[in-house]
Design a protein that fits this description.
By secondary structure, the chain is of the alpha/beta class. The protein is 40% helix and 19% strand. Helix 22 links the parallel strand 17 and strand 18. The structure holds pyridoxal-5'-phosphate (PLP). Residues 13-114 form the DUF3417 domain. InterPro entries: Agluc_phsphrylas, Glyco_trans_35, Glycogen/Maltodextrin_Phosph, Glycogen_phosphorylase_DUF3417, Pyridoxal_P_attach_site.
């Protein structure tokens, strides 16, 4: 058929079931299993096929079945309870303490039925939104609706990955089209070379937080343009810049069209950085000069980076920038060179425009996603603040967290509820409320066994389906039905197959591995993961893994499941005993899957990288290797593999199988309790969102209001001061009397420094003594102004080390305006 359009007929629900519809269109159900159960009961077979999508379920359920349920007293009771709890949730959120926050992200992972995420970044964004709703934050999400989504992975028997893109119809999803006053799709235009691309949006309501997902799939666009938002991370730099223009520029315009005016603008990754350009353009169009417009736009913006390696940052060749952003410098009232300087980076092959650099230029707060990643990021972006020491680079961190209610298994939730204080449900970030010591050993063990058994059943069924689809022999199908032992120690490893994640580290010493797996203690593994469609090394990793498992005859002990998505993630983190993670340090910015596992009573066994480097306390799991960086990858792989085997064989297995009289492993369960307690609250999205509010959202909102007050007099001042200081800084001279080595014996180092800084306001100049102890600690001490000698300002000070040791020191001048976001917002630094 030549399809002209689609017809969607929502059933008219009988009065007592009307609430189902209300619940279906709010993703609140995605973290409320009792709500999901209501939809599942409509038709369990469909429910599985539709990947738990309640809207599709309502559309496809037989009307007779609906009519019958409308008479079913027990079902109606459940509906009533769920609807009531849903309404109560919406009406009882805490009062927001912040003005509106706009949260931009290229991907959002809310639920498996809405495949607009690829992995960790998207799930994190989804959890941020869910926790923002729990918190009652005034926040709006902006992203893209990909009508072919991210791919579903199918694996052939030899591990060949096939990418399947299923067409997603918004009218069959928990989305509502955003319409204008006339009921037509609301749309905004984004300028592309030689044309305007029209963008519309669908609203996903997530608790109290709306998320607008934009799409170019509109008939008024040229056929090719309708596919701009078809797929997440579609290949090619041109596609990437196009999608990022839609996200950043289209996103701001969409918010305006909706009448929404965020005060704080949060870029989740550099993908969204073009938003800053559009916000500056608006201000320039309203009459502000570019420098003030930039200060104003940046004052409310936060940039969260998730990338630990320089090559991971998005960047575009300048000719692509010319093609797509060619008109922009005129709109902003600056030159092409000034425009390019906003994001310019020199690579070995020439200059590029870096989205992370742009995001840093157009924000006044930035953060990494774990303590270690904050440090890695400060070093990575150091070159943008020349003259500062790495720890002074103004990039902080908020460690990621996971949405407790999305990932905690209902059975465990029941157990926790029984034994934790009642306020726990609303204050999940408070460690005091996680009374894991009160969880009875037998109950905890019973639930753990039940979750493992559930995992084993589900692995069998998935493996069966996987093999059946691949046309494998009946014997192989029968094996699948008996795969795994529900009582054996079960280890999960699931993540993107990127080489740095080292999925095959386990196979470094095959003989040793086989010896452990065929030893006295039963142990089994479940692997899963996708490789990015363009990542050929990642794909061959999967085949390699399959070949290794087969060659070693370990197919009964190591299972590889296809299509790692949120639902498989939930299944694995809830059912395994050990969560294994073997990234090459420090390549894991944070990682969050291990947090989900710990929440469910699994123990982490991981490289001290990302979040685990700050969570591990020797009593809540195991480390692999230590906090050392190795000279070569091979050396690190060998050392880490040896550590892995040793700990597994001599610590983990004996502890798991050390059973008391009742058959419970007390030592193991004590570690489980410690793990739940130390990870559950601290690595929750509730804690994460609270940190964002206190560290960033509130201060940014306050500062940006202050700068814009009184017709932006402070903005003008800062902009003028930056321009002036920049133009004069090369004339600044700093020299120091009595420099050189000193031996301190009771008496300190005395310094006199002279600063010549013509045409710069004295009150913004500081001279500092910077001391670094050989162990690495940095101290910065201001020198006192001590008048003037001829043309120079004089500064004095003395320094006596607190304790013996060897130190290096230097003296520097910096310029700091009192209205800046911090002393190192901009690096005007001159070392003597
Ligand atoms: C939690 C989650 C991730 C993030 O996992 P890490 O490997 O810890 O970064 C990725 N994919 C899915 C489907 C998840 O649920």
């Amino acid at each position: 058929m030549n399809v002209l359009g689609r017809i969607t007929a929502m059933p008219t629900l009988p009065a007592p079931l009307k609430g189902l519809r209300e619940v279906a269109y709010n993703l609140w159900w995605s973290w409320n299993p009792e709500a999901q159960r209501l939809f599942e009961q409509l038709d369990p077979g469909n429910w599985k096929r539709f990947r738990g999508n309640p809207v599709k379920q309502l559309l496809e359920t037989d009307p007779d079945r609906i009519a019958a349920l409308a008479e079913d007293v027990s079902y109606l009771g459940h509906v009533e309870a769920v609807v009531e709890s849903f309404r109560k949730y919406l009406s009882s959120r805490p009062k927001s303490t912040t003005p509106l926050i706009g949260y931009f992200s290229m991907e959002f992972g809310f639920h498996e039925s809405l495949p607009i995420y690829s992995g960790g970044l998207g799930i994190l964004a989804g959890d941020h939104i869910k926790a923002a709703s729990d918190h009652g934050l005034s926040l709006v999400g902006i992203g893209l609706f990909y009508h072919q989504g991210y791919f579903r992975q199918e694996l052939s028997p030899d591990g060949q990955q096939k990418e399947v893109y299923d067409e997603q119809h918004p009218e069959e999803l928990p989305l509502t089209p955003v319409e204008d006053a006339e009921g037509k799709p609301l749309r905004v235009g984004v300028e592309f070379p030689g044309r305007t691309v029209w963008v519309t949006a669908y609203k996903a309501q997530v608790g109290t937080v709306p998320v607008y997902l934009m799409s170019t799939n509109l008939p008024e666009n040229a056929p090719d343009d309708r596919y701009l938002t078809a797929r997440l991370y579609a290949p090619g730099q041109e596609m990437r810049i196009q999608q990022e223009l839609i996200l950043g520029i289209g996103g701001v315009r969409m918010l305006r069209a909706l009448g929404l005016a965020p005060t704080v603008w949060h870029m989740n990754e550099g993908h969204a950085a073009f938003m800053g350009l559009e916000r500056i353009r608006e201000l320039v169009a309203s009459g502000k000069p570019f420098p003030e417009a930039l200060e104003a736009a940046a004052s409310g913006a936060l940039f969260t980076t998730h990338t630990p390696v320089p090559a991971g940052h998005d960047s575009f060749p300048l000719d692509l920038m010319d093609r797509y952003l060619g008109g922009w410098w005129d709109k902003l009232g600056i030159s092409r060179d000034e425009f390019m300087a906003l994001g310019l980076e020199q690579k070995s092959w020439g200059p590029v425009f870096s989205m992370s650099h742009l995001a840093l230029t157009l924000s006044r707060a930035a953060n990494g996603v774990s303590r270690l990643h904050g440090e890695v990021s400060r070093n990575m972006f150091r070159h943008l603040w020349p003259g500062l020491e790495p720890e002074e680079v103004p990039v902080g961190h908020v460690t990621n967290g996971v949405h407790t209610w999305t990932f905690l298994h209902p059975e465990l939730l029941g157990l926790y509820r029984q034994h934790f204080p009642p306020q726990w449900r609303e204050q999940v970030e408070d460690p005091e409320l996680w009374r894991t010591e009160d969880l009875p050993e037998e109950d905890l063990w019973r639930v753990r066994n039940s979750l493992r058994a559930h995992l084993v059943r589900e692995v069998r069924s998935r493996l069966f389906e996987q093999r059946k689809r691949n046309g494998e022999a009946p014997a192989r199908l029968r094996e699948a039905e008996k795969a795994l032992d529900p009582h054996a120690l079960t280890i999960g490893f699931a993540r993107r197959f990127a080489t740095y994640k080292r999925a095959v580290l386990l196979f470094t010493d095959p003989e040793r591995l086989v010896r452990i797996l065929r030893g006295a203690y039963p142990v089994q593994f479940v692997f899963a993961g996708k490789a990015h469609p363009q990542d050929d090394p990642g794909k061959s990793f999967i085949k390699d893994l399959v070949a290794k498992i087969r060659d070693l005859g370990l197919e009964d002990r190591i299972i590889l499941l296809e299509n790692y998505d949120i639902s498989l993630a939930r299944l694995l983190v809830q059912g395994v005993d050990i969560w294994l993670n073997t990234p090459r340090r420090p390549m894991e910015a944070s990682g969050t899957s291990g947090m989900k596992a710990a929440l469910n009573g699994a123990l982490n066994f991981s490289i001290l990288d990302g979040w685990w480097a700050e969570a591990f306390n020797t009593r809540n799991g195991w480390q692999i290797g230590d906090e050392r960086n190795y000279a070569t990858d091979e050396a690190q792989d060998t050392a880490d593999a040896q550590a892995l085997y040793y700990t597994l064989e001599y610590e983990i297995l004996p502890l798991f199988y050390a059973r008391g009289a009742e058959g419970t492993p007390s030592g193991w369960l004590n570690m489980v309790r410690e793990s739940i307690k130390s990870v559950g609250p601290r690595f929750s999205a509730a804690r994460m969102v609270r940190d964002y509010v206190n560290q960033y959202y509130i201060p940014l909102a306050q500062r940006s209001a202050r700068l814009s007050a009184q017709e932006g007099v402070r903005l003008k001042e800062i902009a003028a001061w930056k321009t002036q200081t920049k133009s004069q800084w090369s004339n600044v001279r700093l020299w120091v009397e009595n420099r050189g080595d000193v031996m301190v014996n009771g008496q300190g180092l005395n310094l006199r420094a002279f600063l010549s800084a013509p045409n710069l306001p004295e009150n913004t100049l500081r001279v500092e003594l910077v001391v670094r102890r050989s162990s690495g600690d940095l101290e910065v001490l201001p020198l006192r102004p001590a008048g003037r000698e001829r043309e120079a300002l004089v500064f004095e000070g003395s320094y006596l080390p607190h304790r013996p040791g060897s130190y290096v020191y230097g003296v520097r001048a910096i310029a700091v305006h009192p209205e800046l976001s911090g002393p190192h917002e901009v690096a005007f630094v001159k070392w003597a």
